[in-house]
Amino acid sequence: MDFILRIAGTLVELYSWALIIYILMSWFPGARESSIGSVLARICEPFLEPFRRIIPPLGMIDISPLVAILVLNMAARGIIALQYYF
């Protein structure tokens, strides 16, 4: 059980980094249209879309990815808590 929870924690951490990279790619023109950008879009957009529906952009600033990363980190902490429980 410990092995499965470690893998889940590692996957959540890797996904969190993928989200951060995808968000930072919006600062560079044409970065999201690259091959890496399109792969990250297919991975990250399904997770970010519900947050974007709930939290609209404030002018030019979109804070929904920050909320998504916070939720993902809370899920990771939940996995860590499960690891200590078992």
Automatic annotation (TrEMBL):
GO CC terms of this entry = membrane
Query: Membrane-spanning residues where?
Result: 7-28
InterPro entries this protein is in? CCB3/YggT
What keywords would UniProt list here?
Answer: Membrane, Transmembrane, Transmembrane helix
Q: Which domain of life is it from?
A: Bacteria
Does this entry carry the keyword Transcription?
Answer: no
What Pfam families does the entry give? CCB3_YggT (PF02325)
Similarity section: Belongs to the YggT family.
Q: What is the name of this protein?
A: YggT family protein
